[in-house]
Each structure stands twice: as structure tokens, then as C-alpha cells.
Amino acid sequence: QVHLVESGGGLVQPGGSLRLSCAASGSIFRIISMGWFRQAPGKLRELVASKNSGGGTDYADSVRGRFTISRDNAKNTVYLEMNSLKPEDTAVYFCNARVYTDYQVWGDYWGQGTQVTVSS
User: Fold this and answer.
1) In angstroms, how far is CA 50 from the centroid of its own chain?
2) d(Cα 6, Cα 21) in Å, to the nearest integer?
3) Average pLDDT, 10 consecutive residues per value, the chain (120 residues)
């Protein structure tokens, strides 16, 4: 059992900033990667940013240069610093973790999502 809890969403004006947090807990042997996805009304879910244990990162083209993902491995927590927010960033943001629950079994786990709304 792996449980993810997101926090930090809310309403912000265009050009503003938000910081999302996601803490993983439960039967975690080792975290392979953690990241953020988002889904806006009428659109497909898309990868926003991800970070693996080796420090590698991936960003969606639409957020590169504005968003920064970071991890605190000791706390099993991932953060997403979102700057220069645009109305098109409005979506439900979901935390994802790919983890080993023992030395040979891994799976993907998801948080319940946090709403980010960018509007004047």
C-alpha cells in the first residue's frame, strides 16, 4: 500500500506563483521516480514534470522555464514550483510515484489531485 497526498493548489492570478507538494507514504522499498500530471476540462491528461532517483528531469514544453520540480528523498516528497502562471495552466494536478514495494515488485501510484486555477 502506497499513499500519496497533494497540497498547495488554489486560485492565483496570471503571472503569480504556487508551490505544490506531494508526500508518499506506506510500503515503499525504493522510489523510482515521482512526478506531476495535469488534466484540464476537455483535455487529455499530460505529463507536467518528473524526476527520477538519479536526478534526471522531464518537463512539458509548455512549462519548461516556468516550473521547477524537486525531490526530498528523505521525506519521500516531491515539489512543483510554478511561476509565471497562465490561464492555460488551469487544471487538476495529480502526483504520481513509481515505486518498488519490495526488492522485485514495482507499480504506479496516484494522488487524488489538487485544483490549480489561474484567473484574474
Assistant:
1) 7
2) 6
3) 96 98 96 96 96 92 98 93 98 97 95 97
